[in-house]
Structures are given as C-alpha cells and as structure tokens.
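Throughout our pipeline, every protein is held as a single compact record rather than as scattered files. The record that follows is passed on verbatim for readers who wish to inspect the format:
___
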Amino acid sequence: MLLIGIYLYGFGDWEAVQKDPKLGLAGKLARRGDYLLNLLWEHEEGASKVTPLVARLQVLFENKEEYRQLLARRDSNAQRLLDMFQRLLDILKVPSPSFHRSLIVATQRLAAKSGLYPACYELTDVTTIGDRCESAGGFADIYKGSFQGRVVCVKTIRLDKKTQVDHLLKLCPLLLEEPSNCKPCSADVAEGLWFLHRTGIIHGDLKGANILIKESGRACIADFGISSIADRDILAWTTHSSAASKGGTVRWQAPEVFNPEGEDDIPNTVASDVYAWSCVVYEIFTEQVPFAHLQRDAAVMFKVSGGERPTRPPQSSPSWSAWGLTEDIWTLMEDCSKSGPEDRLTTDEIIEHLERTAPEDTRMGESDSTLSPAEVREITRQGLEHDELSVETLESLLDASYPLPRGL
C-alpha cells in the first residue's frame, strides 16, 4: 500500500487575494486556472447545504465540549469525518482564514487520535522508475516515479523495522536541478511563504532543497515536515498542537533561533522564515549554499550569531552577469536577514517590492501539466463513496453513543 504523506492543503478567500493591489503576483497566479481544480461550489443545491455546515462547524470549534466529542470519534465515524473535512478544504471558499486554520487543526488532531487519515491520501497506482535513490535527507529518500503518466518524486520515509507500514510517500512534481529564471522563482517562493504565513503556518525549514520546480519553471515550496501552527487562539483549543517548533537546517536559520546559552528552545517565527527566504534567494543567484566555505555547522552558528551573513559574490561572478543578481536584489536580501527579527521585511513587503521591480514573467503563458495537491486527491476519490456535505451528516457522525476515551 502506498500513502501520500499527510500535508493538509486548503485555501482562504481567494477573491480577496486577487483584489488586493499589493499582490499583483498572487493575482497573476489565479489566471493559471489551476486553483483547486475549480471545485468551488457553483450549484445552488450544494451551496445551500455547505453554508449551514460551515456555520455549524464554526460553532463546534468554539465549544470545548463539542470539540472533545469530535475528537472522540473512532473507526468509521472518524474516517467519514476526516473525509468530509478534507473535501471541505479542497472545494470550499472558506469565509475566513481563522475557520480555515481551525478546520486544518481539527483534521490533524482527529487523524492523530484515531490513527486514520483522509481516504484520498491513499495511492495504489504509483510506480517507481529504477532503483536508484535520486536524493536523500535526514529522514527520507527521494526516488523517481510515475503517476497518471507524469514523472514525479516519490518521498519514502525511513522507518523502523518494527513498523507495520510499508511505505509513506509524498507525491511532488519533478524536481529540476536549477530555476530557469532566478528572479521569478524567488518571487514564487515569497508568494508561497506569504500564503503559509497568512494561514498561520510557519514552515521552519525553508531551503533550496525544499523547493521544487514545475514543468513551467515555477517554484513551489515543499517538505512541511516541521511546519507548525502559529495561531495562539487555535493552540489554546488544541492541547496536542505546539507553537512554532525549533528546528530546521543551520545554514538557513536566523540568529535568534540558536540561543546557545538558553535552556529553552527558541521557536521558529514568520521572521525566521523570512531570514531563510533570503538564504534561498542567495542559493538561487549563486548556486551555493550559505557559508559554503565553512564545513562545520558550529562555525556557521558562530558566524551568524556574530552578525556575519553569506559572502557577497565578486563582481566578476556569473551571479551578476548571467543569473540576474542586481544591487536591488542584494539590498532586499540584506533587509530580510537583519539580526533583529522586528527589523526584517514581512512577506507582504517582499512581494510588494518584487512586484514593483519585477520584469515581465514569460512563464505565465506556458502550459503546465503538473498535478496540484487537490487534483491528486480528486483522482484518488474516484470510486470512493462520499457522504453528503451537510449539517445532518455531521450531526449523525457526532452522535456520542459511547463514553469519551480517557485523556481527551
């Protein structure tokens, strides 16, 4: 059995994104026509049932006792709830980012407590191409594979021999060696980071190895292994969730995260993600990791804590002559890597700056056959039974006919 790693995706009010004058790049993304498979509720009958369902869930998420009842569901009831929540995340224009975040957290918590996951995350028709590992990380290996006639990356988690699960896989677009257009790819990563921060999620391990390039040349953020919820209101209701965790890769980490003398871990923040973004841009324009001349992470931590940053490429470097690095971009990177987190730019400011100085993006007219996460999930739903998305269905699944498990 093959499973996609569980990374719960959804979107907020996309119309607001399109209308925001500061987000010209985000508005352009909407023209690509790949926004959630266009699975928005357009039929009156569907909307008439989904709207009350969203209202009912909003009330449930604010009621501690009902939330406990939700997390107590097991077996088929839990499975059907997980499938319902994931369908909502995929097809619904949610009324507010707060509801969107609450729905993601509820799905994650119910999955953790029940030991289940949305059925649409299970794949049975992924095949690997060859036996050679294309790349490897701290806890997983990447293989070349095929899905629906498309070449994909298959991320295989290294598991203990005692586990009963054969494979845990994440399906990703084909990973290319380098961006074809440095500045637009830098903007793509900033857009992805802006979206994560807008929905209350901190990536925590942004680096070049976690950026995938689609067939059209567009960059996408991947590998949310240590991502975390940053919304304190949600954390107050979800005792098993934690604030932004400490973690990541040293060469891309902000100085405040190191805290060598403190006993407590310093969490990642939106500001530390911005610092990491500046390091990714450095990779894009130099084809080198930050502090490539230093072999030991301890030496990197010492340098960064002392105020040093990745070395500026010499004027003779192809970074300037061939890959499009400019004084304006270098200054932007410096503004995003300042020692004080409060002194760094926000993702809104980064995008506004890039929009103001960006050349025409010729990639917009290119065809892109890469499957979005929602498209993959819709394919896997084919042939599965679906509950009606309605308040009546929700209430029947929440029927508390047996005692709550201890510890909830």
